[in-house]
Amino acid sequence: MRVNITEYLTIDLDKELWECRVCAQSLGNARDNYKRGLLVCDRKLSEVHPHLLDPEKYEYTFCPDPNFTALIEYYCPSCGTMVETEYTVPGHPLVHDIELDIDDLKKKAAQWGEPGQAEIPEWNMPKSGHSH
Ligand SMILES: [Zn+2]
After folding, report:
1. Per residue in 14-49, pLDDT tens?
2. How far is the centre of ligand 1, averaged over its atoms, from the C-alpha of 127 (Å)?
3. Quick one: DSSP state of residue 44?
């Protein structure tokens, strides 16, 4: 059984593995940090936040100072989908942002069923025919 965790991450509860939702690539133990299974890019800040003022003339240019800020991007090693980004401080270890109780998740997922199998509430059903 699989449960969707984020837009790009799912967990295979039977194998207890993180997976990419786009290509189903295994990303490692679901009880560990999923980022360990992803490619990491320490992005150059000026590529994302270009200097709005001339850095030769001004100390502050609206581009974050790389001495205090790091932009880390995480990509699926199989399909290249950007799975996550985080702003942190240079040299900081991987931020462990999702830590789930897998045993409890298995109990809840057994009640939910596979994604896409949930019943659509009547109030959310499309109305038949045109009303205008
Ligand atoms: Zn992928």
Report:
1. 999 999 999 999 999 999 999 999 999 999 999 999
2. 36
3. -
Which stretches of the chain drop beneath a pLDDT of 70? 115-132
Q: Which residues in 1-30 are b (16+ Cβ under 10 Å) and which e?
A: ebbebeebbbbebeebbbbbbbeebebbeb
Cα 100 to Cα 40, 65, 78, 128, distances in angstroms: 22, 34, 24, 41
CA distances (Å), origin 124, targets 61, 120, 121, 127: 48, 7, 5, 9
Euclidean distance between CA atoms 2 and 10, whole angstroms: 7
Ligand 1 centroid–CA 39 distance in Å is: 11
* Tokens encoding 55: 């850095």
* Residues 68, 55: Cα–Cα separation, whole Å: 17
The structural domains of the chain, with segments of one domain joined by +, span 2-94
Q: What 8-state DSSP symbol labels residue 115?
A: T
Ligand 1 centroid, distance to 77 Cα (angstroms)? 7
